[in-house]
Amino acid sequence: MQVIFELCEPIIPNIFSPNGDGSNDAVDLTAPAGWSIGMRIFNRWGQRVAELDGAHVVWNGRHGTSGEPVADGTYFYTFEMTHPTVEMVSKSGTIQVVH
């Protein structure tokens, strides 16, 4: 018997509320075994506010360099998931931050 697993479309939340109430406080993504995630998040002026890399990445709504919370609003992301022997999966979209 041969079992074939197919990679499904990554689901990335389109809104979260990093307000410390313990519910939807971060965007939390985990790659399947052997895969790695690269995610870049930009503000509406195209300035990068976060850069996330690894098998498990979390964005808590803070600026990647200053650590300050980002303002409420719409942020744009690019997402790539890579594996040494499989074609890269890429996606882009928006995330709404509401404190």
Walkthrough of the structure:
Helices cover 0% and strands 47% of the residues. It is mostly beta strands. It has a single domain, classed as Immunoglobulin-like. The strands form two sheets. A five-stranded mixed β-sheet has the order 1-7-6-3-4, with no helix packed on it. The protein starts with 14 loop residues before the first strand and ends with a strand. The mean pLDDT is 93.
Summarize the structure.
With 99 residues, the protein is an all-beta fold. It is 0% helix and 47% strand.
Q: Mind summarizing the main beta sheet?
A: 5 strands, mixed
CATH class: Mainly Beta
Q: Report the structural category.
A: mainly beta
**CATH architecture annotation:** Sandwich
Q: How confident overall, as mean pLDDT? A: 93
Supply Rg.
15 Å
CATH topology: Immunoglobulin-like
Per DSSP E runs of 2 or more residues, the count of β-strands stands at 7
In N-to-C order, the SSE pattern is EEEEEEE
